[in-house]
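tool_call predict_complex ligand=adenosine-5'-tetraphosphate
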Amino acid sequence: MTQPSNRVFSGVQPTGNLHLGNYLGAIRKFVALQNSHECIYCVVDLHAVTVWQDPAELGKNIREVTAAFLASGIDPRKHIVFNQSQIAQHAELAWVFNCVARMGWLNRMTQFKEKAGKDKENASVGLFSYPTLMAADILLYRATHVPVGDDQKQHLELTRDIAAKFNNDFSKQITAQGHGESYFPQTEPIIEGPATRIMSLRDGAKKMSKSDPSDLSRITLTDDADTIAKKIRKAKTDPAPLPETLEELKARPEADNLVGIYAALAETGKAEILSEFAGKEFSAFKPALAELAVEKLAPISAEMTRWMDDPTSVDAVLRDGADRARAIAEETMKEVKAIIGFLS
Ligand code: AQP
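tool_result ok
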């Protein structure tokens, strides 16, 4: 199989509470990339079970992420949408990468430290090796680009390190088997714009996250207009009016976050938002932000509900996507096994 020149891969975990950070930091970028790239978008359910998932909820959450993809404008006929556990090769390649990656590399991963917290001994082995599975997701399709939020930067660097070590360890076989100098590409992350790290509405120092115990910390894609307005009204801010400059804004994390959300929703920059709102109180800014958020999210939410009410169609999209993803995955794994020296 020849190395594709513009293939995008990315994923979202079906862990419930899909939020504005997931949308602005990832899903909206997925949509935009469809015009210029061949895209593969995955509901990463194998990643989800690295922490406990209620079996009675998991299926619904898988469909919800799929519904969010479709409602946001991802076209499953032109591109591929599927859930990870349907393709056994993700876990198979992850095993190979567990043998390529070094313990020291994984020990440096900050997301594991944050998620495992103080109780490291009790974290699953899967949570520790999460980044090698993520590398397998991406490299199984030899993707050239991965749109993600800022929190995934370190995992993308590890993916590049794993690809480089595999290419180096097996360089003779890779060349001899006609793949040129390297088999896996050096995948480029796409992390840009004002929404690479949306922060909690309750704490400007914490990332907006699905697992935050406070529902007021995030706007979810299924919140109705009143809930969105309430959450923005209650968002933590400081008493000063909005500043004139980006420099001043930087020193005020909660204000910076709300201006960043406004800019991302309006598809412009923070400077443009400040030029409109500098000197105004939050009592004027927050209703304008709520109105914009509702305008942008309500159509997505309505479309998500439509898909969620039709699980048979969602499942058909996932099955069709899996069939097309599997064809690529099988080919890659066949070549990887030959490179390693396994008998077929
Ligand atoms: N706050 C965020 N701002 C911008 N982008 C974000 N992403 C997540 N949070 C933000 C991006 O969304 C994509 C999907 O994320 P995920 O579902 O794979 O897992 P995550 O990063 O662990 O998401 P959460 O919401 O923060 O969940 P928990 O609470 O479990 O940690 C990724 O591209 C991610 O960068």
